User: Fold these one by one.
Assistant:
Number 1:
Amino acid sequence: MLHETITGKILYTSRKPGREGEERGREYFTFTKHTDGSRTLRALCEIEEPNPTVMRDITYSLDANDMPTDCFVRLMIGDKFMGAGLFRITEDFVECESFGPSIGRLSQKVPIVGTFDGFGTHPIQGDAYITKKVDKSKGPHIKALRTFLPSPDHRGATPPMVSEVNIFLQYVGDETITVGAGTFEASHFRFTDPEGGMASSDGAHPDYDVWVTADDDAIFLQGGVGGYMQTWYELTELTRR
Amino acid sequence: MQHRTISGKILYTSRKPGREGQERGREQFTWTIHGDGSRTIRALCEIDEPDPTVLRDVTCSFGADDRPTDCFVRLTIGDRFMGAGIFAASHFRFTDPDAQAHPDYDIWVTADDDALFLNGGVGGYMQTWYELTELTRR
C-alpha cells in the first residue's frame, strides 16, 4: 500500500486507592498516514470501570494540516446501543448526522464562526494527537484550545451531537520515558480546565497529563487524569509498517 | 466487558498465473457480540492490487435477528479520499393482535424524513420478503 500504518494498544488502569494498577479498560488504535499528508485514526475503546461500561468505535480523519475532516462515532453504554453519528468538519461549520434511542434521528449544522484548533474524539490516542496544535519551538507555555466534540461528557458517553469545548493545553517539556511498548523521546503536555470549559456534574475536567512521542506522529505513550477520575494510561504495544 | 470479542486477519492473495500465493492485500476485523444479541463488525481492508489500491474502513452493526441496523463506510482509493457515509435504518413492525389475522410484518425504512422502504417481510402463512433493489434521488 502507499500509506504508512501505525498500530498499537493502550492499557487503561486505575490509580484509585486500593485499585492501583488494576486494568480497567483498553484501546486498540490504527493510524494510516497517506501520501497527500492526510491521516485517519480508528480506535476501539473499552472502559470497564466505573459503571456503566463504555465501548466506543471511532474513525477520525484529518487533512495534511492536521485539521479534522470527518469523524464517525458509535457508542455502546452498559452494553446497550446509545447512538452513532457521522460528523463532517469544514472551515465554516460542523455537520452531524446521528441517531440513537434517546435522540431519534438528528441532523445538525453548526456554524464555527472564527478559528478553532481541532475535534476532540475521546480515544486517548486522539487526545495525544491534538497536542500537535502546540508550537513546541516556543518552549513551555500554555495554549488555549477551541475544539468541537461529539460529546462534552468526560468519558464521551452521551449520544453523538455537536458540542464546543474550550480548554487549555500546557507544553511542559521533553524527556525520555520508558513504557510497556519501549523507550521513547517524549513531549509532556497537560490539559487543564481552569475556567470550567468542560465542566460536567463532576465539576471541571481534572488536570490530564499526557506524554507523546516527540515526533510528527504524537503517539500516546503514557498519561493520567487526577481529581475524581484517578486514571492512568500506557502504551503497551506499537507497530509501524 | 459484557460483550464477547472476535478478532482476526484475512490475507488476500492472488491466483493469477505467475503470481500464485502472492500477498495482494489484507483485512483486520473485530466482531463484538453484545448481551442483547446485537453485534458489530469493524474492518480495515487493504487491497494492493490491481491498481488503484483500495483502503476501506467499515463499521457495520446488526440486530439480534442479524438484520443490519447501521453501517459506516470510508473509502480511500489510490491513496486519495473517495468518500464516507453512514446509513441508518429504522425498524418497525405491523401487528394485528386483536384479530390475529394479519401475520406480523417487519419493515426497515430509511431513518430520515423520507422513510423509504429498505427491506421487510411478513411471517405466518405468508412468508414473504421484500427488498429495495434500486434507488434514485434527484
Number 2:
Amino acid sequence: MEFILSAVQLYFTSLPMFFNPMTIGLLLLGTVIGITFGALPGLTSTMSLALFTPLTFGLESSQAMVFLIAIYSCAVYGGSLSAILINIPGTPSAIMTGLDGYPMSQRGEAGRAIGLATIASALGGLGGMLVLILAAPAVAQLALRLGSSEYALLASLGLALIAYISGKSIVKGVIAGFIGLLIATIGMDPIGAYPRFTFGLVDLIGGVELIPALIGLFGIAEVLKQVDKGLLKEVGFQKISGILSCFSEVKKLWGVLIRSVAIGTFIGAVPGTGGSIAAMTSYAIQKRVSKKSKEFGTGLPEGICAPESANNASVGGALIPMLTLGIPGDPMTAVLIGALLFHGLVPGPLLFEAHPDFISAIFLTLTLSCFLILLVGLAGSKLMARVLTIPQYILMPTILVLCMVGSYTIRQSLFDIGVATVCGILGYLLQKVEIPVAPIVLGLILGPMLEDNFRRSLILSGGSLMPFFTRPGCLILILLIILVLFGPSIQSRLRRKTGFKLKSSG
Amino acid sequence: MRKAEVAVAICIFAVSGLVFYASREYPLADLGKGGAAALFPCLLAGAFAVVAVLLLLGSIVGSYSREKTSSFILPEKRSLLSVVVILLLLLATPYIMGFLGFLLTAFFFLAVLLLRLRDKPLTIRSALTTILLSAGVTGVVYAVFWWGAKVPLPVGVLLGA
C-alpha cells in the first residue's frame, strides 16, 4: 500500500508545472509534430526526436522532456494514419495496422478505421503508462544496489540485445554495434582523460557529439535512402467520415485491448525490442485466439485495435529500462537518452532520487498525450489526411535544412554539421549493404557506460576480473547475457524441430 | 561469396588495424590504477576483426544469415545523381555557411534541391514557386531557431563583417 502511495505521490509531483501555458503549449506542439512526423511516410519517429531535440536548447529540462515525450508518444500513433489511408505505414510499428486498416479504408470506412486506431492507441498508451508508474520506481530502487561491475555487465547485456534488433543477420548487427562502440572511444578516455583518436582536432577532444551523430544516422541517412529508392508520387486527398461512430464498437473489444496492452508493455520493457515487435506479436496472438482468425487482413476491427494498442503500450514499457538503468528500449529511447544528456541529466536510478519532478513530468506528459491523441486524432484526422498530400520533393530538402540547423545548435559549431554529414553518409552506405543503423546507437550510448564501469571495477579490484565472477548480481547478468546471445539460435532450432514434427505428423 | 561483404570485411580489417596502430601511443599498463587508455579500443579492435572473419566465413558458407540477402544495389541514374548532389551540398555546407551565413546558405541549398528533386519540367511558374518555397522555409526555420529557441545561427563572414 505504501508503495502505491509513494508512486501516486511521485506521479503528481510536477502537476503545478502543467498549469503553465508554456508547458501546455509545448505539449500541444509536441503532439502535433509527433502525429505529423509519424504519419508522413519517409519521416520516421526517431528522426523527429533527433531533429527536434536541438530545438529544446533554451528550455528547462522538464519542459524539454514534455515536448519530446509528447513527440515520442504521438509519433507511434501517427504511423497508423498513413497505414490506413494509403497503405504505407508512417512508422515501422504501424505495419500491422495497415493489414486491416487499409482494406477497411478501401471499403469507404477510413473514418471508422482511424477512429478505432485512435481509441486503441490512447487506451494502449494509458495502460503502458500505468505499468511504468508502478514498475519504474521499484526497478530504480533495485538498480541503486548495483556496483560498477554489475553496470559494466548491464551495458554488455544491452549490447547483447543487438541480436534481436539486427534484422536478417546477427553478424551485421554486431558489426553496427562495434561501429558505435568505436565511435564512442573518440575523445578523452573516461578515467584518465587521455585524448584518443582526435587526430589533432580540438572539436573531437570532447568526443563525437551524440545528437549530431543521431541526426546524421536517422535524419540524413533516411533522406538519402528515400531519394535513392525514388521519391513517392503525390498522394491524393481521401475523404474521411464517421470517425465518432466507432466508440460503441470499442466496448466489444475490451478483451483485445487488455491483452494487447499487457503484451505491448512487456515487450516494450525488453531492451532492444520496441513498438514494431510489440505490434507484430500482439497481432499474431490476436489472430490465433480470435474466433474470426480467417477474416484477419480483410478489414477486421480486432486487427486494428490489437497492434495499435500494443505499440502505444510499448512506449511506457520502453521507458522503464531507459529511466531506471540508462539502457535504451528502442532507437527512440536512445535518442531520448541523448536528449537527457544534452540537458545535463544522466538516466539511471539516481534520477528518481535527485529529480522526482522530472520523472513526474514524464509520467504526466504520457498521460496527457494519450488524451491529446484522442482529441487531435478524432478531431484533426481530416487535416492530417491533407498533410499526407505534401509532396516528398518539398519535405526532403526541408528535413535536410532542419538536420543542418539541429546539428549546429548543440555546440553552435559548424564542425557538428560535418559530424552529422559523415554519420549520414555512413548510415546510408551501411543500409545499402544491409547493415542496420539502430545497433550503432546502442554502441554509442552504452560504450562509455561499459568502458567507464569496466575500468572502474578493475581499479576497485586492483586489476582483477574476479568480481565479475563472484558477485551474485554479476553471475545473474552473465547468465542473462548467455541466454540473450544464444536465445535466438536455440529458438530457431526449436522452431525448425517443431516445424519438422508438425510436417511429419501432418 | 558476395563482393559487398568482402568489401565490408576489408574495411573492418583496415579500421581495426588503424585503431591498433593509433592506440600504440596510449598508455596500457596499470590496469588497477586507471592508466589503461588503450585497453578498451584494443579489445574492441580485436573483437571487430574477429567479427570480420565471421562475416567472411558466413559469406563463404552462406549459413550466417537467417534469410538470403541482396548485395549492394546502385540506384537509378536520376536518383543516383540526386544522391550525389545532396552529398556534395552537405559536405560543402559547413564551409559555405561559415562564409555566407545561415540565411543565404539554406536558401541556396533548398532552391537547388527543390529544383533537383521535382520530377516535372521547369517552368517560370515552378521556378517562382521554388524561390518562394525556399525563402519561406528558410524564414520559418530561422524564426523558430533564432527567436523561438534563442539559438544564434551563423551570420557568416560576408554579412557579419
